[in-house]
Specification:
This protein has 173 residues and is an all-beta fold. A five-stranded antiparallel sheet has the order 1-10-9-8-7, with no helix packed on it. It has a four-stranded antiparallel sheet with strand order 2-13-12-11, with no helix packed on it. Strand 7 and strand 8 form a beta hairpin. It starts with a strand and ends with a strand. The relative contact order is 0.25.
Length: 173
């Protein structure tokens, strides 16, 4: 999975060039009766996965030594989405062909369907500033920034080679 994620070469924040590293990836099996319609979280984990058959599951994992392990899904009630709304992030220049997916903790995900990838922008900027790309068709983004450094964890939910996948990344900006 690591080769699917890359810092945008032109990204700079002061002397920092940023970094992105996969810390966990989980394939989610869909059934003939249930296909994912939404995913959300107030941080980067646990994630609520909502399916079109009315079922919801919580995806949880343990964080050990910089890696997510023991991913597990548990059925939960399908309560209303409990995520704080954010202000719309800075948009790309007109005619870019990018479509806004969602934002979390000031990161924003944009779909580039022509290139078959997702662009995630840096948090806390007042202009459109691509941070990293993901070679996956993303439908949801969740995140949580570290309290004492310029970085955090970003979770993307989408399809990798046609399979529903949840990927959590350690990101520095």
């Amino acid at each position: 999975m690591a080769d699917r994620f890359a810092i945008v070469p032109s990204y700079k924040r002061g002397a920092s060039t940023g970094h992105v590293k996969v810390v966990g990836a989980f394939e989610i099996q869909e059934t003939d009766k249930g296909h994912l319609i939404a995913a959300w979280s107030s941080g980067f984990l646990p994630i609520t996965l909502s399916f079109d058959d009315g079922e919801c599951y919580s995806l949880q994992a343990d964080y050990f030594g910089g890696t997510l392990l023991n991913g597990r899904m548990s059925p939960i009630d399908c309560n209303e989405r409990q995520v704080a709304s954010e202000a719309l992030p800075p948009s790309p220049a007109g005619g870019s062909g990018l479509a806004f997916i969602d934002s979390a903790w000031s990161y924003a995900a944009w779909s580039d369907k022509q290139a078959g990838m997702t662009i995630v922008t840096a948090p806390y900027t007042d202009s459109f500033k691509p941070l990293f790309t993901a070679k996956m068709a993303t439908i949801a983004i969740m995140a949580m920034n570290g309290p004492d450094y310029p970085g955090g964890n970003v979770t993307l939910v989408g399809r990798v080679d046609g399979r529903l996948t949840v990927v959590t990344l350690e990101v520095g900006y």
